[in-house]
Amino acid sequence: MPDLPPPFLYPSRIRFVDTDASQRIHYTAMFRHFEAAEMEWLRAGGCPYSDSRMAGVTFPRVHVECDFQAELRFDDLVTVALTVERIGTSSFTMVFAVSSGDRQCARGKIVVVCIDRGTQRPCPIPSALLDSIQRQLAK
Amino acid sequence: MPDLPPPFLYPSRIRFVDTDASQRIHYTAMFRHFEAAEMEWLRAGGCPYSDSRMAGVTFPRVHVECDFQAELRFDDLVTVALTVERIGTSSFTMVFAVSSGDRQCARGKIVVVCIDRGTQRPCPIPSALLDSIQRQLAK
Amino acid sequence: MPDLPPPFLYPSRIRFVDTDASQRIHYTAMFRHFEAAEMEWLRAGGCPYSDSRMAGVTFPRVHVECDFQAELRFDDLVTVALTVERIGTSSFTMVFAVSSGDRQCARGKIVVVCIDRGTQRPCPIPSALLDSIQRQLAK
Amino acid sequence: MPDLPPPFLYPSRIRFVDTDASQRIHYTAMFRHFEAAEMEWLRAGGCPYSDSRMAGVTFPRVHVECDFQAELRFDDLVTVALTVERIGTSSFTMVFAVSSGDRQCARGKIVVVCIDRGTQRPCPIPSALLDSIQRQLAK
Fold first, then answer.
1. Nearest-Cα residue of chain D relative to residue A60
2. How many domains does chain B divide into?
3. CATH value at residue D91
4. A41: closest CA of chain C, how far (Å)
5. I need a labelling partner for D36 at 20 to 30 A (CA). Which of B16, C1, C98, D25 fits?
């Protein structure tokens, strides 16, 4: 990711529940690791989604994708590298690169949109969240 | 289950996401099949949890258990037999027996309590739900 | 999907375990519905992945994506429309369109590659599977 | 747990995917946290299930249960306290107590049986695993 800010690194462990009968990770499980990385990244920036300053907003994902490049198995230790590819008015795009040792295993992308709980319409990224994201990108 | 009412039968299929690297079902997946059976049982009785008559109540589980008796594998077709073991004032107990062909594979039990969303305290089983349960038991 | 073959239609129900604290579907749950549709589509074509003719092959996903267009909630009934966008030598691409009533709710894409269990390398799509896919597309 | 050995303590975080539309944890998610605690407990004892000394054995659960005593919500930090209630010849029983701050939130129990992959019959607990368990209990 040459032009992106330096990523936030989140170590995670492939659990047994993450695997399937192919003896590799089931692809849906990877998204749980992305989610954990996202939450700890925001917490590190000072504004997790559970922060009371964001009580009126929800954060559905409007696009998610993942490419799987190498297999992952039970108990593998991975690093999820998260960075931000784009910040819009009411949405932002995270990219994820998962490695295990020196193997690149997966690359993902998630687009989050901010929705006002009252109107159920897109709203600007809450300032506390925007500050958190920018603080993380400036590290 | 000799003394219990005749069960509601729900056919279900073991999915790939239900399996793990042991090539059998991951035990947590069984509970998803229990949940599907429970929902279709209530629907058949005329009162799913999504019914507007129950908007002020939630239905957390205060006890869940399962015994696994025989392995289940990807794509196995199972029958979940659900019946009610006990109906209290604000809670009820469902029991589940899962078979695949003539093999008994699992037996489960779930205790649901009715919680008033406003007070966050137990409340009587809503009458629409109680009617639904009793209608099913009388079949 | 104007240029694609007519889809296989799979009805499914949003379960409680599929939802999250936003009171909508958690995005990872959608992929479980895609998987169920895929399995029933292959079964309808005569060759589920569990067929013994494919015992030496696994079917990991190398790319998955989904766009979420409208919210889905607990107990919503959906139709997953599956068709095939591309058939290669050792891989194929399925596309999914999820609707609930007349609302388009999600569009997904999954690329499956066939991997020989022995060599762990891509192999041609097994002929039983290829026949199944083509039989379905010709309907 | 007055008569049991001192527990292994595993800190964990309730994730968004763990919640459901009741805005509390979905009960099946609790078992993922139990599993993570179990894996780190065995690793701390020197013998995770992924250890090559146990390649011929699988560890299905024959009984699982959980009582839910207090609600858990998104982003709550919990401690999973794991200890062993019983060690048999081919099985062992773990108990789990989950707290968040000073609230007791859940108590669980899981019985694991050791199955020889070849015979698919119960076999003695592998000595490396037994040593790991006993090493942990002696701490």
1. D16
2. 1
3. 3.10.129.10
4. 20
5. B16
